Automatic annotation (TrEMBL):
<dbReference type="InterPro" id="IPR036732">
    <property type="entry name" value="AFP_Neu5c_C_sf"/>
</dbReference>
<comment type="similarity">
    <text>Belongs to the type-III AFP family.</text>
</comment>
<keyword id="KW-0047">Antifreeze protein</keyword>
<dbReference type="GO" id="GO:0016051">
    <property type="term" value="P:carbohydrate biosynthetic process"/>
</dbReference>
<protein>
    <recommendedName>
        <fullName>N-acetylneuraminate-9-phosphate synthase</fullName>
        <ecNumber>2.5.1.57</ecNumber>
    </recommendedName>
</protein>
<dbReference type="GO" id="GO:0005576">
    <property type="term" value="C:extracellular region"/>
</dbReference>
<dbReference type="GO" id="GO:0006054">
    <property type="term" value="P:N-acetylneuraminate metabolic process"/>
</dbReference>
<dbReference type="InterPro" id="IPR013974">
    <property type="entry name" value="SAF"/>
</dbReference>
<dbReference type="InterPro" id="IPR051690">
    <property type="entry name" value="PseI-like"/>
</dbReference>
<dbReference type="InterPro" id="IPR057736">
    <property type="entry name" value="SAF_PseI/NeuA/NeuB"/>
</dbReference>
<dbReference type="InterPro" id="IPR013132">
    <property type="entry name" value="PseI/NeuA/B-like_N"/>
</dbReference>
<dbReference type="Pfam" id="PF08666">
    <property type="entry name" value="SAF"/>
</dbReference>
<dbReference type="InterPro" id="IPR006190">
    <property type="entry name" value="SAF_AFP_Neu5Ac"/>
</dbReference>
<dbReference type="GO" id="GO:0047444">
    <property type="term" value="F:N-acylneuraminate-9-phosphate synthase activity"/>
</dbReference>
<keyword id="KW-0964">Secreted</keyword>
<keyword id="KW-0808">Transferase</keyword>
<dbReference type="InterPro" id="IPR013785">
    <property type="entry name" value="Aldolase_TIM"/>
</dbReference>
Length: 357
């Protein structure tokens, strides 16, 4: 299975590719398509890679009693939970309109399919990838159906155990090679003590052949940036135009200035991650020339003297001499010329010294 793959046309994730940033609009559009368009444009302007929504076919996601239960929260858009959800749910035609707008803006567009029928619609809509919400991570019939569609998948893991996520991995892997798992804690907003970023490293060990990412619901951007520094290849954050708006997710969402700063910080961290190969870089050479240390003579050493450790010291020397890390190789070898006290010991002065350059 690939550690990197194409999540959307022309956009690879994993490996040394830039972190893929999903702006989760969800249902923060307040049920207004013009607000949804503004949020798509905002996500693009802030530098996100993808604008994502949540699509439900309500009668397939909820049973009748769930839709009929009274909903009196301050965030309610209706007297029952069904009325509330219907207010926030866009039609198929509206989704096509939003997809067209996202294409015009130049940003990837997808949604979490919140039930099997929503997945069927999103497949018909030809989204670049499927997002699996945490509430469906242990819904194995749903996972199998979605994986068989053959589109890349991004799977959040809130509310799940490692044992469940192992089963998720095996279930999806059987049908689909291109997927990523995101560490996630399903609380809105999320306290830092419950983020559990260390799970990213555990997922990297458990599932070494897929990219691992992070879906965050905390306030601010610092923790998400830390997740990228720990190796998250995909990040997802809820976004809003105004945190004071009605809705459960707004408080855990990023406003435009925060999303802009998050993207900037993630790209900066991406530049800083490098290759993992430890070596002297070209940018360090000037410092090395100025401050790099060499082996010097503690005492005057006549030509022909066999060197011992007590004759040798380490200083910034001019000219540059043998590197301190090779000082042990000098012991037991004779100098081929006189060396003055405090003078640099250069490779050509020592008989039989293997200069590694």
């Amino acid at each position: 299975m690939p550690l990197k793959f194409e999540l959307g046309p022309g956009r690879m994730i994993g490996g040394s590719n830039p972190c893929f940033i999903i702006a989760e609009i969800g249902q923060n559009h307040q049920g207004e398509i013009e607000i949804a368009k503004k949020m798509i444009k905002m996500a693009k302007d802030c530098g996100a890679d993808c604008a994502k929504f949540q699509k439900s076919e309500l009668e397939y996601k909820f049973n009748k009693r769930a839709l009929e239960r009274p909903y009196t929260s301050k965030h309610s858009w209706g007297k029952t939970y069904g009325d509330h959800k219907r207010h926030l749910e866009f039609s198929h035609e509206q989704y096509r309109e939003l997809q067209k707008y996202a294409k015009e803006v130049g940003i990837f567009f997808t949604a979490s399919g919140m039930d099997e029928m929503a997945v069927e619609f999103l497949d018909e809509l030809d989204v670049p990838f499927f997002k699996v919400a945490s509430c469906d991570a242990n819904n194995f019939p749903y996972l199998e159906l979605t994986a068989k569609k053959g589109r890349p998948m991004v799977i959040s893991s809130g509310m799940q155990s490692m044992a469940t996520m192992r089963r998720v991995y095996q279930t999806v892997k059987e049908h689909n090679q291109n997927f990523t798992i995101l560490q996630c804690t399903s609380a809105y907003p999320l306290d830092p003590e419950d983020v559990n970023l260390c799970v990213i490293a555990e997922y990297q060990k458990e599932f070494p052949d897929i990219p691992i990412g992070y879906s965050g619901h905390e306030r601010g951007i610092s923790i998400t940036v830390a997740a990228v520094a720990m190796g998250a290849k995909v990040v997802e954050r809820h976004v809003t135009l105004d945190k004071s708006w009605k809705g459960n997710d707004h408080e855990a969402s990023l406003e435009p200035s925060e999303l802009t700063e998050l993207v900037r910080a993630i790209r900066l961290v991406g530049r800083a991650q490098g290759t993992g190969i430890k070596q002297m870089l070209p940018c360090e050479k000037a410092c090395h020339v100025k401050l790099g240390k060499s082996v010097v003579a503690k005492v005057a050493i006549p030509k022909g003297t066999v060197l011992s450790m007590d004759m040798l010291g380490v200083k910034v020397g001019e000219p540059r001499g043998v590197s301190p890390e090779d000082m042990g190789q000098l012991v037991g070898k004779a100098v081929t010329e006189d060396v003055e006290e405090d003078g640099s010991i250069t490779p050509r002065m020592v008989d039989g010294y293997n200069n590694k350059g």
